């Protein structure tokens, strides 16, 4: 294997490239990225990077000896020729890592109006930050982590913030009880929460109002659509590798002979969960799975069953989670204290698969041991 192409210049793709070099791959390495930027950290985009233009660049990109094709999205994959298509160009490969990640979902109506933003990439965050100085009335659409973190950050700037969500805040990722604690924290800090589905936005020359499905409208000078995301797989059409749910990766770490997938775009069965394939959209998984993809390409396969972990901030309170904590789990609070401190446990068919905690950091190492024991 002398030529490896990595499609996706985010953390997963960068991690794959770095691991390939660490393992001794000395052939041609090409990294193709739709964004014009070298790999950078995404978690701060909805938090501190909305406050200041700090440097999010991941160190070491210059050290992996790659040819970087940035600002140029892959447009197709020719399996017969073993080539990635980038417009009129074709990048030949012996091995391929698919790490194209996700794209933000947009509003169905009015998404192109000035003042309407999504928050997925670095340029999105910078564009949003440029509008904050005017003190706009802001509507955040979506009660998941991106919507919740963005609402908290903008409220911390003193903006008037309304959070519109079809389901209670963070319920889909933390369950009902822990989600209710997060929602109460938003209300305590002055965020107005509206329950409903957004049908579109409107305005004359710029966004002025958000329309809900019950006929109500919410005035807005600025809208952030945090409606979730979907895998970037259109360029794989006709190959049988990608679909709306992502790229399925087998037990050997490969999606097809000589082709691996990693990060947010990859679907794979995790033994701690139900056995069905799923995607894990966490920063740590992108780093770990990128390295795993590199090993798979070089024939150094191993069992891939990391313990998912993630963290978030709401108004100075750090939320940490291990394992699986979604609404498909049975959740219950096992500890709760003033100041919105809590521990929530998550089970599938009676088996402990996850924990989320705010203010109980000392309890997490033991939970890590217990959950990891389920993987043994």
Description of the structure:
The structure is a single chain. The chain has 376 residues and is α/β, with parallel strands linked by helices. The protein has three domains: 3-103 and 229-297, FAD/NAD(P)-binding domain (3-Layer(bba) Sandwich), CATH 3.50.50; 106-225, 3-Layer(bba) Sandwich (FAD/NAD(P)-binding domain), CATH 3.50.50.60; 316-373, 2-Layer Sandwich (Enolase-like, domain 1), CATH 3.30.390.30. α1 packs across α5. It has six helices and 28 strands. The mean pLDDT is 94. A six-stranded mixed sheet has the order 3-2-1-7-21-20, with helices on one face. Strands 9-16-10-11-12 form a five-stranded parallel sheet, covered by helices on one side. Helix content is 20%, strand content 32%. The radius of gyration is 21 Å and the shape is globular.
Could you give a quick summary of the protein structure above?
The chain is an alpha/beta fold and 376 residues long. The chain has helices spanning 11-22, 122-129, 145-156, 171-188, 283-297, 364-373, and strands at 3-7, 28-33, 67-70, 76-78, 83-86, 89-92, 95-98, 102-104, 116-118, 138-141, 161-165, 192-195, 198-202, 209-212, 217-219, 222-225, 229-231, 242-243, 246-248, 254-256, 259-261, 266-269, 277-278, 309-314, 317-323, 330-337, 341-348, 351-358.
């Amino acid at each position: 294997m002398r030529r490896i192409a990595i499609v996706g210049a985010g953390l997963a793709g960068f991690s794959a490239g770095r691991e390939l070099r660490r393992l001794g791959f000395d052939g041609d390495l090409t990294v193709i990225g739709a964004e014009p930027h070298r790999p950078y950290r995404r978690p701060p985009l909805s938090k501190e990077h909305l406050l200041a233009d700090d440097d999010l660049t991941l160190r070491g990109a210059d050290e992996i000896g790659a040819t970087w094709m940035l600002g140029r999205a892959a447009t197709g994959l020719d399996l017969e020729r073993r080539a990635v298509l980038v417009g009129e160009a074709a990048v030949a490969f012996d091995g391929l890592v698919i790490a194209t990640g996700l794209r933000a979902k947009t509003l169905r109506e009015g998404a192109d109006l000035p003042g309407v933003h999504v928050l997925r990439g670095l340029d999105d965050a910078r564009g949003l930050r440029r509008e904050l100085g005017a003190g706009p009335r802001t509507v955040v659409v979506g009660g998941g982590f991106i919507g919740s973190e963005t609402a908290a950050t903008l409220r911390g700037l003193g903006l008037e913030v309304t959070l519109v969500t079809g389901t209670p805040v963070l319920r889909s990722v933390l369950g009902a009880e822990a989600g209710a604690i997060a929602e109460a924290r938003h209300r305590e800090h002055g965020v107005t929460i509206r329950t409903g589905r957004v049908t579109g936005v409107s305005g004359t020359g710029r966004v002025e109002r958000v329309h809900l499905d019950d006929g109500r409208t919410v005035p807005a000078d600025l809208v952030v659509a945090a409606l979730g995301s979907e895998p970037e797989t259109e360029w794989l059409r006709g190959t049988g590798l990608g679909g709306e749910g992502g790229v399925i990766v087998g037990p050997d770490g490969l999606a097809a002979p000589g082709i691996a997938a990693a990060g947010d775009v990859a679907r794979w069965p995790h033994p701690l969960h139900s056995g069905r394939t799923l995607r894990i959209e966490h920063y740590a998984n992108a780093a770990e799975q990128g390295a795993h993809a590199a090993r798979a390409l070089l024939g150094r396969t191993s069992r891939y069953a990391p313990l998912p972990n993630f963290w978030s901030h709401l108004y100075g309170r750090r939320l940490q989670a291990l394992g699986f904590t979604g609404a498909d789990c049975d959740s219950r609070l096992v500890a709760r204290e003033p100041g919105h401190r809590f521990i929530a446990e998550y089970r599938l068919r009676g088996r402990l698969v996850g924990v989320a905690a705010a203010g109980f950091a000392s309890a997490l190492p033991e939970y890590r041991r217990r959950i990891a024991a389920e993987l043994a």
